[in-house]
Amino acid sequence: MKRRPEMKLMSNENNTGLLFSYNLSVDRSGEMKRILGKSAASTLLTRKNTITGIEYRNDPTIFAWELMNEPRCISDPSGDTLQDWIEEMSAFVKTIDKNHLLTVGLEAVNPELWASSLGSDFVRNSKVPAIDFASVHIYPDHWFPHLEFEDKLKYVSKWMLSHIEDGMDEFNDDFGFVPWERESTYRVLTDHHADWPESRELLNKIII
């Protein structure tokens, strides 16, 4: 099975060249960032591959687009600002590119404790009409540095099962573990994808 990349239109991290230190806000600068975001997305979607001459929006080797890597809006923990942004930006992307799938780029954490301050809601954000599937990220080392390895594995298993039970089309596009323990973690991921041979084949290739 050939691998096709999921491309990020924007990033919430400050170490990428996509849209530096992009943070949503409710003030006038937030509106300007939406304008800049649309301009950046349009430029990327219509860019021509320098080798094939095919615009990215028509490129069959691209699997999907991600609106932003882990979008957040700390200035509005109610989630309304981020929800409005997702609805606006996803609809905008679809006016330019109707050929590719589109996801938000969420970590898939529902608003509780720490996550409640981020202004995101996994279920609500993923149900936007122009969003084709949900994204899931998991980094147990980063999230639970105090837990023992076996407890982290149990969490990964519980995490996978809970999102499978969501009944939504989902893609685990971000996951990782320290090098000396990651194979066991990836095996847990593949075990939960056993009913989907193509997913298992791809994850096994990543592990190998």
Topology at a glance:
Layout: E1 6-8, H1 28-45, E2 64-66, H2 80-96, E3 101-103, H3 122-126, E4 134-138, H4 140-143, H5 149-164, E5 170-175, H6 182-191, H7 197-207
Parallel strand pairs: 1-2, 2-3, 4-5
Helix pairs in contact: 1-2, 5-6, 6-7
List keywords for this structure.
single chain, MAN-like, TIM Barrel, 39% helix, two-stranded parallel ribbon, mainly alpha, 3-stranded parallel beta sheet, 208 residues
How would you describe this protein?
The chain is mostly helical and 208 residues long. The chain folds into two domains: 1-132, Glycosidases (TIM Barrel, Alpha-Beta Barrel), CATH 3.20.20; 142-169 and 178-208, no CATH class. Helix content is 39%, strand content 10%. The chain is built from seven helices and five strands. The chain has helices spanning 28-45, 80-96, 122-126, 140-143, 149-164, 182-191, 197-207; strands at residues 6-8, 64-66, 101-103, 134-138, 170-175. The strands form two sheets. It has a three-stranded parallel sheet, with helices on one face. The chain has a two-stranded parallel sheet with strand order 4-5. Helix 1 links the parallel strand 1 (6-8) and strand 2 (64-66). Helix 5 (149-164) runs parallel beside helix 6. The longest helix has 18 residues, at 28-45. It is globular, with a radius of gyration of 18 Å. The two termini are 15 Å apart. Mean pLDDT is 75; it is low at 14-28 and 202-208.
Radius of gyration (Å): 18 Å
Structural class: mainly alpha
Low-confidence stretches: 14-28, 202-208
Portion in strands:
5-15%
Biggest sheet, open or closed, and with what strands and sense? 3 strands, parallel
CATH topology of the largest domain: TIM Barrel
CATH architecture descriptor of the largest domain? Alpha-Beta Barrel
Number of strands: 5
For the record, the count of structural domains works out to 2
CATH superfamily of the largest domain: Glycosidases
Oligomer: single chain
